[in-house]
Amino acid sequence: MREFLRNLSLCFAAGAFGGLCYALGLWAMGHYGFTRWLGVDIAPHLSAGYLYQRIVWGGICGLIFLLPWHRSWFSRGFWLSLIPAGVLLFLLLPMRGYGLGALSLGLMAPLVIILACAIGGIAASGLLRAEAR
Predict the structure, then answer these.
(1) Domain of life of the organism in this record (predicted)?
(2) Which of 2, 24, 85, 106 has its CA 20 to 30 A from that of 96?
């Protein structure tokens, strides 16, 4: 039981770190004009509320890392990041009125969301690797 709680805590903390990296990656893509260059209307403002929400949800999504995965940490981070990206693109963003795949934000919006999620997933997986999990 102690080992499970340790793994649970590590995965939540790594997910929170991944959520921070996701938020900063998405902010940087908007701030430096990458999203505008792709024709995507995503440019979040960096604020405590913006970061807090993504850090907490990142921690919750980090529990995905409890799944057994025996490949490299990089591929684990990328492939498992597709789960929260799918939830965003096919559930949460359509519920907020952005359409399926958030295509009302631009045709390349799914690419931006997947890239931002991959940044967070790879960062979280790298942190877990550093902790030898």
Answers:
(1) Bacteria
(2) 24
